[in-house]
Specification:
It is a single chain. By secondary structure, the protein is of the alpha/beta class. The protein has a single domain, classed as Spore Coat Polysaccharide Biosynthesis Protein SpsA, Chain A, CATH 3.90.550. Helix content is 29%, strand content 21%. Strands 1, 4, 5, 6, 7, 8, 9, 10 and 11 form a 9-stranded mixed beta sheet that branches. The protein has a two-stranded antiparallel ribbon with strand order 2-3. The longest helix has 12 residues.
């Protein structure tokens, strides 16, 4: 497999959202959500270009108006991964060796975090990469909204789960996270163009359906996922409460 060098940052941005309709266009301190994500992504040194992939012409027009790039994709995609593949085809898959799937609801994503992921993907033999953080609170171990990862000695993922893995059979004393280095997933992915073409053609797998985690489909089909560690925080805007918190961050200069 050839080494990834030219990487396209793709920001999937659907207009429909059950908890926050029109999420990409909501205002956060004078800029839309999607504009903030684009501007942060464009500061990454690891990306050759950045494009928004959306199913709504209003978002395309908005992105073009502030000077970004956007492509209109199908409204029927089941996942952001599928939308990324169509966007890569529209932009020109011959122009890039890899893709970073950047969450469209992280207005404060650190460019350095994207660089960390790009560096991971560019390692020889890596075709899919993602990031994780070391768990520092037992609360994360009991939250089904947090996804935990176990890895092998080469930092390839063994399993992703909404349950606390591994299970500590010896109850011991003290906080669980101090007795094992638990890793929680940071939801950003990078793929070689070659493997992205393959995984979007894979049907949903039993493990994926059980945990509702798309990345288990890749593992179940024998596709390795390299996990890099990051210390950069993540902040996703999923609800009106998250949106208000994001606005407070901007007002406070954070």
């Amino acid at each position: 497999m050839s080494r990834v060098q030219r990487i396209l940052g793709i920001i999937p941005a659907r207009h429909a959202s059950s908890r926050l309709p029109g999420k990409p266009l909501v205002d956060i301190g004078g800029k839309s959500m999607v504009q903030r994500v684009v501007e942060q992504a464009m500061r990454s040194n690891g990306l050759s270009a950045v494009v928004v992939a959306t199913d709504d012409q209003r978002i395309v027009d908005h992105v073009l108006a502030f000077g970004g790039d956007a492509v209109l994709t199908s409204a029927s995609h089941a996942s952001g991964t599928d939308r990324c593949w169509e966007a890569l085809e529209v932009v020109g898959k011959e122009k890039f060796d890899g893709v970073v799937n950047i969450q469209g609801d992280e207005p404060f994503i650190e460019p350095a975090q994207i660089d960390e992921l790009c560096a991971c993907l560019m390692q020889p033999g890596v075709s899919i990469a993602t990031l994780a953080q070391v768990v520092t609170s037992d609360e994360d171990l009991d939250d089904p909204g947090e996804v935990l990862i176990t890895v092998d000695r080469s930092m390839n993922a063994l399993y992703f789960s909404r349950a606390a893995i591994p299970f500590l059979r010896d109850q011991g004393t003290g906080a669980r996270h101090t007795r094992f280095r638990y890793l929680k997933h940071v939801g950003i992915y990078a793929y070689s163009a070659e493997v992205l073409w393959k995984i979007v053609r894979m049907p949903p797998s039993p493990l994926e359906l059980a945990e509702s985690l798309e990345q288990l489909r890749w593992l179940e089909n024998g596709v390795a996922v390299r996990v890099g560690l990051t210390e950069h925080p993540s902040f996703c805007v999923d609800t009106p409460e998250d949106l208000e918190q994001a606005r407070r961050k901007v007002r406070a200069g954070k």
